[in-house]
Design goal:
Structural class: alpha/beta
Strand content: 15-25%
Radius of gyration: 21 Å
Shape: globular
Length: 383
């Protein structure tokens, strides 16, 4: 995203439409393939999934984009199935996402004795208190990086931030990394930090505390060892943050593979904007992106506060609050029966990504009918 556009937006998933009504479900034919367009997926494919796996409409709305993207990742395999088997597999993939959400729900993001590392855009009115206050409220130890002194440079702050990330990856103490600023699909634009640099810092840090891998011969460069990023959570609230995180995951896995390192677990990641989407801010006395503003509203301003903030708080509560951007609820009596689109450009729909362990990857291969050792990404979009 260019700087000229970033005056109104800091930080594009296709338009989301209301779920098909029950009458349409009864008339629809079996899905022939996985459409690339999400609205078409909603109209032509979802009606074959929900009857096979009864689910609360709100929960399905939250996982439906993730299910679409997972299906697109395996579109060729799904296309080779019969229509009935494909519909059954899609239902099983929905269950798989649900299971991953339940398994990750209680993972802490802000909690006592957790380190919080912040990186704030240098050009606008973001104040370190946007991170330090909420971190301190949950017993975290915050360190925030932001260029605001004349003698500091963008490159210098970026180097210091990456050093802190490297140390966090090397430490036993759990840590949450929060990035608020301008973004592109391939970099934290505010500080010109490409995804490869961040991946290198994470891998270098994790390699410091790597452990010997079974059936491997350790070498001086760390090959034959296992690295674990499972104590880390990364939050990016900037434009194209889901794209950036997907690039980051790929770079971590590629770098570890090149170095002969096995990955026990990738970090959990939260993107303030979905794929191909920009994010917006409210410019007033403060300059805070919509996503982080809602996090502060829910878990700092409102009372009572929970004892800790977990992934569930993000992929359920924050996600629900963010759904109102660009949409309006359809209310019948006292219930919200659906949503209507007001301005698709304002939709940004945050995403939570979680690591997949060996058992989860085996389950995914079984659903898709893949060989036992078929390569799969070690992460999952859970909505």
């Amino acid at each position: 995203m260019t700087r000229s556009l970033l005056a109104a937006a800091l930080f594009v998933l296709p338009v989301l439409l209301p779920l098909a009504p029950p009458a349409a479900i009864g008339r629809a034919a079996e899905p022939a393939a996985i459409p690339a367009d999400f609205a078409t997926f909603q109209r032509d494919v979802s009606p074959h999934i929900t009857p096979r796996r009864p689910i609360d409409p709100k929960r399905y709305r939250q996982i439906e984009p993730a299910l679409h993207h997972l299906a697109l990742q395996h579109a060729e395999r799904l296309a080779a199935m019969s229509a009935a088997d494909r519909a059954a597999a899609l239902g099983a993939l929905g269950d798989f996402i649900d299971t991953a959400r339940d398994a990750a729900a209680d993972r802490p993001v802000l909690a006592p004795d957790r380190t919080v590392i912040g990186l704030l855009d240098p050009d606008r009115g973001l104040d370190p208190k946007e991170i330090t206050a909420i971190a301190a409220a949950y017993g975290c130890t915050p360190t925030v990086f932001k260029k605001d002194a004349d003698d500091e440079t963008i490159a210098g702050v970026a180097t210091a931030f990456l050093a802190a990330v490297r140390d966090a990856a090397a430490a036993e103490q759990p840590a949450t990394i929060v990035v608020l600023g301008h973004g592109l699909p391939t970099e934290i634009q505010s500080y010109s930090i490409r995804f490869e640099r961040l991946a290198d810092a994470l891998v270098e840090g994790a390699a410091r505390r790597s452990s010997p891998r079974a059936s491997a011969v350790p070498t001086d460069d760390g090959a034959g060892r296992t690295v674990d990023f499972g104590h880390l959570v990364l939050i990016c609230d900037d434009c194209f943050s889901a794209d950036f995180i997907i690039h980051l995951y790929g770079a971590i896995e590629d770098t570890c593979r090149d170095r002969g390192l096995a990955v026990a677990a990738l970090p959990a990641c939260i993107a303030g904007t979905n794929r191909d989407r920009v994010g917006f801010v409210d410019v007033s006395a403060t300059f805070v992106p919509h996503f982080w503003k809602d996090v502060i509203e829910l878990y700092f301003i409102r009372r009572p506060r929970p004892k800790q903030v977990t992934l569930r708080n993000f992929f359920e509560n924050v996600d629900h609050m963010m759904y109102g951007y660009g949409r309006a609820p359809i209310v019948e009596g006292t219930e919200v029966k659906g949503w209507r689109m007001i301005d698709p450009a304002l939709v940004q729909d945050p995403v939570t990504f979680v690591p997949l362990d060996r058992e989860a990857l085996a389950a995914l291969r079984a659903i898709l009918g893949l060989p036992a050792e078929a390569p799969l990404p070690g992460w999952l979009d859970i909505g």
